[in-house]
Amino acid sequence: RFAKEYDVKKILGIGGGGCVFEVVNKFDEGKYAVKRITVDPSDDLITKALREVRAMAQLDHPGIVRYNNDEILRKLNSKKRELLCNYSLTDWLSANTSSDSRSLLRMKSWFKQIVSAVEYIHARNFIHRDLKNTFQPCNIMFVESDRLKICDLGIVIERKMENEVEITLTRTGSGTEEYMSPEQRSLDCRLNAKSDVFTLGLILVELCVVM
């Protein structure tokens, strides 16, 4: 089915969760990014992929990658989403290491875009848990020269609210260690949306501090 519907143009990235291809749909000639994971149907990666698909289907925000559809085939998972510029925030920061290139106005604008997307995720009762910038694969990508989008919602979880008060959730530590909040690192991981806020602080430092 994949070969019948898409022409593969190039590989955009390879990670532990699978391979992402730039493709052209043979029917509507639209360009998309398709993530393919070859796993056993009982594998945890299928659960993770389905979680990401369901979360993305509920989120419609200019700062979050747009989900188109999903195809679950035997021993193969494919997720189709909009094609972003193959350039991450990590790439830009690595190429622009002078304070002159990182103007306060630009960094403030970019950070506001990221915060807006995370705020929307929280408002829709999700916690991202794996925001990251300088570790591959980065999940903050450019759409245009000054527009950013968050992608990769593979370990997103739902927030639990009771009488408009957020309930602390218990989960084993998940995410990228360097970006985890202290509570996320704990084996008896009790976290809420504040965990994402902690990670946003780390990303802000990376934007503003030239190493």
From TrEMBL:
Where does this protein come from, organism-wise?
Pristionchus entomophagus
The record's listing under SUPFAM superfamilies reads: Protein kinase-like (PK-like)
Which ranges carry the Protein kinase domain?
6-211
Lineage: superkingdom: Eukaryota
Binding annotation for ATP: K35
| The protein's name | Protein kinase domain-containing protein
Record GO terms (molecular function): ATP binding; eukaryotic translation initiation factor 2alpha kinase activity
Identify the PROSITE patterns for this entry: PROTEIN_KINASE_ATP, PROTEIN_KINASE_DOM
* Record key words, sorted: ATP-binding, Kinase, Nucleotide-binding, Transferase
Q: Which Gene3D superfamilies match?
A: Phosphorylase Kinase, domain 1, Transferase(Phosphotransferase) domain 1
